[in-house]
Amino acid sequence: MLYNTDYYIRVCSILIVASVIGAVLNAIPFFFYDLTETKQKAMVQVLKIRAIFNDAEMHILTREKCEEALEIIKDAKRYENAEFITISNEKLINAKRTHKRSEIKKAKSELKEQKIENEKIAVSKFVSEELNKFNTESGKEEIRNAEMIVNAGLDGFLKIEFMTKKQARSLPRNTQQEKTAAKNALTLINKMKTAKKTVKKYYPNGIVKFDDSLFEEIFSELDKNDSDRRNTVLKLKYARESKNRSEIVMLKNELNELHRKKSAIEIKLKQAEEQNSVYHRAAAPYLDALDLIKQKEWYETAESMLTEYAF
């Protein structure tokens, strides 16, 4: 078959066409890519602040991270109302006309400083928008929905009637705030839909909160099994060195049993992960609402809390 010319040409043609299609599909996103380097830096700063929030929740804050986040927040406030510098190459062009190296160097340095300053302003404004997002109309609406869900509780939040997907899609999108509000509405509707389907399938009698301590128990079993297997392998090594046949047979059986136990524990872990995944799909709107309310409280007190932690 490999030496059949027609077959070879057909296979190669299919592979080439598939490769071309794949290459085109991979290239499409680049035509719509608008994530600049400055925006990337701004997003990193925002992610650092959110990470600090998570660290505070888990009680693993460090002084260094607090100081870094505090500086980000202070910069955001400092540049919040700053105006962007109008950058012009005119000074550099005039400097080049003088043919004086010192003048050219000075003009280039000033231009670079202006660009750095504009980048600081852009990044800080992005961070400021994140920190103040709950003061906007779309942010207030998000919090209202979150509070409604949390007040309804884990067993009652699915009974809340929000707008339909058709209504959400028909929301105005003239301003950035309106776009954000419409996007938030669609996200909530989709999560509620997924939650209802998951509850119907897995929790016909109501959502049962997943017990996170199950993971601690399973990981503890895995650690013990790992330790037992290492000890048994070591004993088996000594038994072989001493040529103790009965001990070798016994330890081999013991090791096989430990391997079987490990497999059983891993199955238990997989089942626990699946249960946890199902719970988080079913309770996603409720859990997200809790996180959102906590995030709002964190943003309101972030600077004072970080100052306290850092100093």
Topology:
Blueprint: H1 5-31, H2 37-57, H3 63-78, H4 90-98, H5 101-131, H6 137-152, H7 165-169, H8 176-202, H9 213-241, H10 245-282, H11 284-310
Brief summary:
By secondary structure, the chain is mainly alpha-helical.
For the terminal residues, how far apart are their CA atoms?
76 Å
- Overall average residue pLDDT: 86
List segments where confidence is low: pLDDT < 50 over at least 5 consecutive residues.
none
The total of beta strands comes to: 0
Which strand-content bin applies to the residues? under 5%
Helices and strands, in N-to-C order?
HHHHHHHHHHH
Computed over alpha carbons, the radius of gyration is: 30 Å
Structural class from helices and strands? mainly alpha
> What is the count of helical runs?
11
Biggest pleated sheet:
none
Overall form: extended
Number of domains: 3
Helix content: over 70%
Attribute tags:
79% helix; mainly alpha; 11 helices
Describe the structure.
The chain is mainly alpha-helical. It folds into three domains: about 35-130, no CATH class; about 135-205 and about 285-300, no CATH class; about 215-280. The chain has helices spanning about 5-30, 35-55, 65-80, 90-100, 100-130, 135-150, 165-170, 175-200, 215-240, 245-280, 285-310. Helix 6 (about 135-150) crosses helix 11 (about 285-310). The longest helix has about 40 residues, at about 245-280. The model has no long low-confidence stretch (mean pLDDT about 85).
